[in-house]
């Protein structure tokens, strides 16, 4: 008997949810509610995957190339080998995974009347690859070549395109002269040895030179600008930088990625949070359709409810019947939305490429966005959360209509039926 009481709400709830011959309007409204829920879930899956993609690319590309922590000295570092050893030996530097010297130059590149600003890093390839992932974007042999040839440089692909530069072309690099007081500049003619292609904003204005050749152009008299550190925990950078500088002699100061690219990272995080909020609200609006659908179902099925009550069905079972109907709408809509959303994430980048080819312009450019392509990163934890949230909201939405159905009095319902 108890088994029948459990099965009855599921059976009748399913029958109420299915299309009947005399319920075409109800079937249409139910379909609209299900489609609205599916659309909200699909959009949420797609947009969250895109925001996760931006977060991943920021971490794995931009923050894997730019310094996580940089330790500078106001007069430059003359014996960088000793300074590097001193820094890594500090108790405060326990979170440091690797360290490498660098020279930082800010200058202008001129070629055939075109001028663009550039941020040049002088690097030691053998050590640089321990603190960054340059080898993913530049051939290690090319890095060695640039290190050995003082007249060669690697430029970001977008920067080279702005200057109409091809590999092998020569151009002039203009940088402040040592002790120039900002009123004079030094000029060095360089050859483009290769291109840096990260697909991010770094391609717009970054250059790579050998450590020694860059040091000759620096404003600190041939010294290196500083030591860059790679950490095991990216988000400990501000605290570790302060602690390391406090343990070093006077004249040292620090910078970290939260100062150079922190605004970008926090903008991505804030956008992601806002997108989550807005799209959960979209699902909430779709769930209101479920409420209206079930309210109409209660009105339409009042005669059936009255008959069930006269046959001995309890108010609790009536409530369960409409709860089952809401759950079925939620299950179908959520499942369909997850499938469609996953399918969209697989083709979104291709569709964006087709649109760009059709209109002859790029929708995403690293001059405006962190990356110049549409990144996608599906995370099963997010997909599970979206599915559970949509189902939970659907069940909650069915509570009020189900409660109203359980309050229907058989005599009142049959009086006008």
Automatic annotation (TrEMBL):
Every ABC3 transporter permease C-terminal domain range: 277-410
Main location: membrane
Key words, A-Z: Cell membrane, Lipoprotein, Membrane, Transmembrane, Transmembrane helix, Transport
InterPro entries assigned to the protein according to its UniProt record, in alphabetical order: ABC3_permease_C (IPR003838), Lipoprotein-release_system (IPR051447), LolCE_TM (IPR011925), MacB_PCD (IPR025857)
Segments passing through the bilayer: 25-51, 274-298, 318-340, 347-364, 384-403
Cellular component aspect of the GO annotation: plasma membrane protein complex
Topological relation to the membrane, as annotated: Multi-pass membrane protein
Intracellular or extracellular location(s): Cell membrane
One GO biological process term: lipoprotein transport
Residues of the MacB-like periplasmic core domain: 30-244
Short name of any one Pfam family annotated for the protein: FtsX
Family that this chain belongs to: Belongs to the ABC-4 integral membrane protein family. LolC/E subfamily.
Record's protein name: Lipoprotein-releasing ABC transporter permease subunit
Taxon lineage: Bacteria, Pseudomonadati, Pseudomonadota, Gammaproteobacteria, Alteromonadales
